[in-house]
Design goal:
- The complex is a heterodimer.
- Chain A has ten helices and four strands.
- Chain A has helices at about 5-15, 25-30, 35-50, 75-80, 90-100, 105-115, 120-125, 150-155, 170-175, 190; strands at about 55-60, 65-70, 130-135, 145-150.
- Chain A is about 45% helix and about 10% strand.
- Chain A is α+β, with helices and mostly antiparallel strands.
- In chain A, helix 1 crosses helix 3.
- By secondary structure, chain B is mostly helical.
- Chain B has a three-stranded antiparallel beta sheet.
- Classes of the chains: A alpha+beta, B mainly alpha.
Chain lengths: ~200, ~260
Amino acid sequence: MERDQLKSILESLFFASEGPLTPAQLGEILAGVERKEIVSAVEELSAEYDAAGRGFRLTEVAGGYQLRTARENAEWVKKLYREKPARMTRATLETLAIIAYRQPITRAEIEAVRGVDVDGVVATLLERRLIRIVARKDIPGRPFLYGTTPEFLELFNLKDLSHLPTLKEMEEMASPPPLDAEAPPEGSGQQAVGIKD
Amino acid sequence: MTSKVELEIFEGPLDLLLHLIKKSEVSIADIPIAPITEQYLATIELMGDLNLDLAGEFLVMAATLIHIKSRMLLPPDESDLEEDEEGDPRAELARRLLEYQRFKDAAEELERRDILRRDVFTRSPEPREEVETGGFESVSLFDLISALRTVLDRLPKDSVHEVALEKVSVRDKMSQLLDRLRQEEKVVFQSVFEGASSRMEVIVTFLAMLELVKIRAIRIWQEEITGPIVLALAAPLEEVQQKLATEEIEGDGDGA
């Protein structure tokens, strides 16, 4: 298959697909084309969109690729929809963050960090399918263990869990920056903030 | 029936402590226990006055703080001295606060990402679901309560000898506030309480404000961290009035 034809087919697939398309799905559709070739064609396509400054990007999200509008155009795209974007409360975000970083985790363990009951929030997160029950913990009572879902990755534009921003070190937060420190330690929270995607 | 506003979806005692620590500009590692405990107790007392559904965790933390405070007054135990840092009765609390702060930061980090259907959109967005059961936006409940304390502190002290308590209900205050918001696009928090003559009236007004947030009739936010807290209608007035008509207002009818 010609490179240009491959890219054209991929573009159609991304355009028509509702969710992110994984390399595995693409490989199945494009039977006979090598996986490596598909991935490199996808990357080329993505780079072309970026370079041309298109109003959409090919984003790596939840283990696949998806066409998403450019962030800088959000203001206008929003006007398409009558409803305001759903806002998340701090309680929701905090609970989600604890689950994302500490999964699999029980409700009691989440409560130990937040210092407050999380029943309601956990129920809401389950309902929105941002978290799911992944197992039961092998301790008395066999409580549920919660983890995040692919929808969580999609919502926060994350390629996978390893792309979560790095948590700050406790030591770093506890003490004021020492006077002789020249630069923040490598790999600290600061650095991991801007994730390339 | 008591007037209560659900607090559970908001923050807990650790968040309140962090808020107080930040406001006092002190370090988590070296918390001045006496003044922080005092501020903590004053805040939860006020929350109790407001009949906010004070989660048990707030009281547990109050007991913890008092316990730490009393331990700090005791001469250091010799066996504790050997364990250096562990001997500081505040160490465990500091660890919990730091741990919580980490996740608060992580939550903020998440919030800044390109969020689907807020910052970026896919070609066929799913129909949006109703998400939260109301909620403050950038202003936390504690910010509001701090602001309320300022208002209460400024009340003229000589109004103590009220003879006849004016009967004001939460519902009355709600419509008053809505009326005002219809005329003025934005209203500054403090100005809502102008003209209130008693502590009770201030509190009823505050509860009315919380109720309006809860039914998502108004929004409350702060344009800058230290700037004034502002209120505005969150939906067209007709919609709000419809909600008001159907919603059962807790605390209505106790007549304050």
